[in-house]
Amino acid sequence: MNSKTAVFPGSFDPFTKGHESIVMKSLQLFEKVTIAIGVNTSKNYYFDLDKRKLHIQSLFEGVGERINIVTYSKLTVDLCKEIGAQCIVRGLRNSTDFEYENSIAQMNQTLAGIETVFFTTESQYSPINATIVREIHKNKGDISPFVTNAHLLV
Ligand code: ADP
Questions:
Q1: What does the pLDDT look like over 69-118, one tens digit per residue?
Q2: How far is CA 85 from CA 1, 11, 50, 116, in A?
Q3: pLDDT tens sequence across 6-63
Q4: Residue 14: is the preceding peptide bond cis (ω within 30°)?
Q5: Residue 3: pLDDT band by 50, 70, 90 thresholds?
Q6: Residue nearest to atom 4 of ligand 1 (CA)
């Protein structure tokens, strides 16, 4: 059993500086982190999936094999089992995140015995919200204060 691999799942539409900071914190605790971009066929995404993946790859180029980026369209716990990860990583910005995340974490525990590890975000990143970043982008605003290498998403 490899207890040092974690999955960080999300839509990452787009992957923000807040997400980036959660990955960096995860690398301090886990040997390997798989960033898993969830693809739900009934959901419309704003940024193209391939661009989102290339963008995330650009952010962790220097980290090497400890980071893996995948796309998936199944239960997150099934992805964890498939790749031998015991933990899911999620980020918490506020109590609203906690209420939602706590339910998912407990259901994943019941479903598959997979634990969720939460990292709180740093205060400068806690206001960053992907929905608002998309709104700024749609209205031709500059998203670079919130997204590293934002030019790769255009
Ligand atoms: P999902 O659609 O699964 O909620 P997101 O891409 O919105 O996916 O978020 C993935 C994870 O990152 C969630 O745990 C969310 O709480 C966390 N997260 C989102 N924004 C931030 C941020 N600014 N700082 C820290 N964590 C964040």
A1: 999 999 999 999 999 999 999 999 999 999 999 999 999 999 999 999 99
A2: 9, 19, 24, 11
A3: 999 999 999 999 999 999 999 999 999 999 999 998 899 999 999 999 999 999 999 9
A4: yes
A5: low
A6: 10
Q: Which of 40, 30, 32 is nearest to 10 (CA)?
A: 40
Contact 153, 130 (CB under 8 A): no
Which residues is 92 bridged to in the sheet?
Answer: 120
Q: Whose CA is nearest to atom 12 of ligand 1?
A: 91
Angle between helices 95-112 and 76-83 (to 10 degrees): 60
* Of 22, 79, 119, best ligand 1 pocket probe by most atoms within 8 Å of the beta carbon: 22
Distance of CA 47 to the CA centre of its chain: 15
Q: Ligand 1, from 11, 13, 15, 19: best to mutate by most atoms within 8 Å of Cβ?
A: 19
With a 6 Å cutoff on the Cβ, whether 5 touches ligand 1 is no
Q: Quote the pTM value.
A: 0.95
Q: Is the CB of 14 under 6 A from ligand 1?
A: no
Q: What one-letter code names the amino acid at 85? A: A
What six digits make up the tokens of 60?
């962790």
